[in-house]
Structure formats: C-alpha cells, structure tokens
Amino acid sequence: MQNSEALALTAALLAAAGDLTRRINDGVEARGFEGRPAHGFAFARLAPDGATVTELAAHLGVTKQAASQFVDELVRKGYVERRPHPVDARARLVVLTERGRDCTRAAEEAAADAVRAWAEVLGEDEVRLLCDRLGRIAPSGPLRPAW
Known about the structure:
Elements: H1 3-30, H2 37-46, H3 53-60, H4 64-76, E1 80-84, E2 92-96, H5 98-122, H6 124-137
Antiparallel strand pairs: 1-2
Helix pairs in contact: 1-5, 3-4, 5-6
C-alpha cells in the first residue's frame, strides 16, 4: 500500500468514526438526553455492574481526580449514583441509574440507526463484512474518548 493510500484510509476511518460519534450523540439528544460523547464511554464501563472511580479513571485514561469530577457531573445530571461497595468498605461503587440505563438504550438505538444508514449505502452484507474486517484489526481493551 502506498503512503497516499494509507493516508486516505486513515482519513476515511477517522472521518467515519467522527461521523458515527456525532450521529450517536445527536440521536441521544433527539431522544431527550443531554450529554456528550464521553458519557457513553463511561456508561460502557459502568454497565451492568458499576465501577469504582479508580476503575473508571483507568478505563477512560484520566486521573482519579478527573474521573471523580466527571462522576460528580453525571450524578448531577441523574445518570449515575454512588453506592457503598459490596466488598470494599473504603470504596464507593458508581452505578447507572434508571435514567442512565435509558440513556444507554437511546445510544444503542442511535448507533443502530447510524449503521442502518451505512447499510443503505453499502448493503447489509458489506456492512457485516466491514464489521468482521474491522473486528480483526481493532485493538482490544477499553474504548476511550479523544479528550
């Protein structure tokens, strides 16, 4: 692959990822939830069993202080709550509220809408193939926002 082809592929993947993030966020907002794309990255770690602030910080690639401030914001918006940790009396568990779970479902619906739009352009078989190919090269581990 020539450098120019690699650069074109890189640009296309980044543009598709950015567009997907925007479409999901727009879809979440259209369904009555406020927030920003970073919320979804946190919700992915918190569902289904919750996490400590330390675990969330590691997942998001931020400091514990930044994660704590982020959790404070999510608590104010009604998306999460802090509960006693079931095993560690020193820690608090951050869990999604019903509103947080509803927001997560809204994001899933918005993501499905976005992928359906791709299927209208490429066809469902091509989208399945794209999913398979990207799954083979995508790194494992937490999805992190581009802060």
